[in-house]
Amino acid sequence: MKEQSPIGVFDSGYGGITVLLELKKVLPQYDYLYLGDNARAPYGTKSFDVVLEHTWEGVQKLFQLGCELVILACNTASAKALRTIQQQRLFEYPNKRVLGVIRPSAEIVGAITRTGEIGVLATEGTVKSCSYEIEIRKFFPEVNVSQMACPLWVPLIENNRHWTDEGKQLIFKDMNTFLKKYPNVDAIVLGCTHYPILLPLLEDIVPKNIVLISQGELVAKSLLDYLCRHQWMESKLSKSGTIQFFTSESAEIFNDNVLNIFHIYINAKKISLPWH
Ligand code: DGL
From the CB of 15, is ligand 1 less than 6 Å away? Predict the structure, then answer.
């Protein structure tokens, strides 16, 4: 009998669930394995080499769990590890594929802006990598890309403190700093998987003429397109509509935080990743 495989979704922690939920909306028929490397998060402040090795270990774990296709639902991992994994590591696994989350946003963002000024908010690692700027310019060479790192946003979300008055003030302050510095920006990519969780708050802060771009839906549509074009991969995917969650941290903490942040009940399993 032909072996069937779930789609792997990898993130440093909880943020990738924003992508997973959109994948599930657009492609509900497939099975998904989500792995959050919570024990080693955040990735946003880690060096290129460390993010690469952590990400590669996470991807290989998902391969061991039966995934043939893995989505790096983490911008920092996509920025720092995807290219090396695709070009230098996957030869060990010739029938498996790893895709990232930066390109789907880069492909459309230039068509949204009217001023030609695009903003990117992301982790320090993603900003320093300039991956968004490089990818966006491939499709829209004439646009300007202004980036800012928001290093407090991920810890605020991971600790479920983004809804406190203090949390809101910090987010408000960062957003206003960005808007003052780049007044012509009219499209802002939320270039970190955690940031769409802040969307209701951010929509209250930014002027109505500015479009906030969350990646989840774009990544899901891009995957749909990929699977239409790669039938050999699509035919290997199992289709029972299930989601299984794995974390490198305590499963109880993971379950509680997913409930707090996303209001969904899950039953995660703990797995260990090699560098513990
Ligand atoms: N998931 C990461 C990203 O999208 C943010 C969290 C982290 O720093 O690990 O960049």
Answer: yes
| Domain at 7-101+217-270: CATH code | 3.40.50.1860
> What pTM does this model have?
0.94
> Could you give the CA distance from residue 144 to residue 215 in angstroms, rounded to a whole number?
19
What are the domain boundaries of the chain? 7-101+217-270, 102-215
Among residues 47, 1, 18, the alpha carbon closest in space to that of 194 is found at 18
Half-sphere exposure of 202 (CA within 13 A, CB side): 21
223: closest CA among 61, 15, 69, 108? 69
pLDDT, tens digit, 9 for 90 and up, residues 171-222:
999 999 999 999 999 999 999 999 999 999 999 999 999 999 999 999 999 9
Q: Ligand 1: does its nearest atom lie under 6 Å from the Cβ of 261?
A: no
Q: How confident is the model over 129-179, as pLDDT tens digits? A: 999 999 999 999 999 999 999 999 999 988 889 989 999 999 999 999 999
Ligand 1 centroid vs 105 CA: distance in angstroms? 16
pLDDT of residue 276: 44
Output the average pLDDT for the chain: 95
**Ligand 1: which residue has its CA nearest to atom 8?**
44
| Identical fold, 7-101+217-270 and 102-215 | yes
6: DSSP letter: P
Q: For ligand 1, what atom is nearest to the CA of residue 76?
A: 10
- pLDDT value for 2: 61
> Which atom of ligand 1 is nearest to 16's Cα?
1
CATH number belonging to domain 102-215: 3.40.50.1860
